[in-house]
Amino acid sequence: MRDIEDAQVKRQAEADDILKKYEEALPIRQFLLTNLVRSSDGEHLRLRIPIKILALSLDKMGDFPFNDPDEVRYDGRTLIVRGTKSHYVADDVLPLIGRLFPMFKLVDIDSGHWVISEKPEAFRQAVVDFLHEAEGRDTW
């Protein structure tokens, strides 16, 4: 993204050409390209959130502020959709997830981290199935 910002590209196709050096999956590149907007002078594309701000916030973006299920817990139904090719929701954290979200349902989808971009139909179906399972129940 820094290379895109530095190049001051005029079209998304130019930005995509730069991203191809780092990511081969088109759905992921398309997702990343949604962060581009036209600059105020209309001459080039810029990131919606400046790269400096993203870089300063990167550590906190992946953080989950609650780690003690004895202090904070959500007892309603919860859907966890996990890409099986991603390391973000590893098997070893499932017991902690279960303590924080005792009524969680896990759906594994054969994809990387950005499930919704890589496998949109499988993601949609997981959400629809989860919502249909809730029909007729008084609790969430």
How does this structure look, described?
It is a single chain. Strand 1 (36-38) and strand 2 (45-47) form a beta hairpin. The protein has helices spanning 2-7, 12-19, 26-33, 51-61, 94-100, 115-118, 120-134; strands at residues 36-38, 45-47, 77-83, 103-109. The radius of gyration is 19 Å and the shape is elongated. The strands form 2 sheets. The protein has a two-stranded antiparallel ribbon with strand order 1-2. A two-stranded parallel ribbon has the order 3-4. The chain is an alpha+beta fold and 140 residues long.
Topology:
Layout lengths: L1 H6 L4 H8 L6 H8 L2 E3 L6 E3 L3 H11 L15 E7 L10 H7 L2 E7 L5 H4 L1 H15 L6
Parallel strand pairs: 3-4
Antiparallel strand pairs: 1-2
Structure keywords:
140 residues, alpha+beta, two-stranded parallel sheet
Helix tally equals: 7
Strand content: 5-15%
Rg, alpha carbons: 19 Å
Largest sheet: 2 strands, antiparallel
Question: Quick one: overall form?
Answer: elongated
Oligomer: single chain
Poorly predicted parts: none
- Overall pLDDT confidence: 89
The N- and C-terminal alpha carbons lie at a distance of 39 Å
Task: Provide a quick synopsis of the model.
The protein is an alpha+beta fold and 140 residues long.
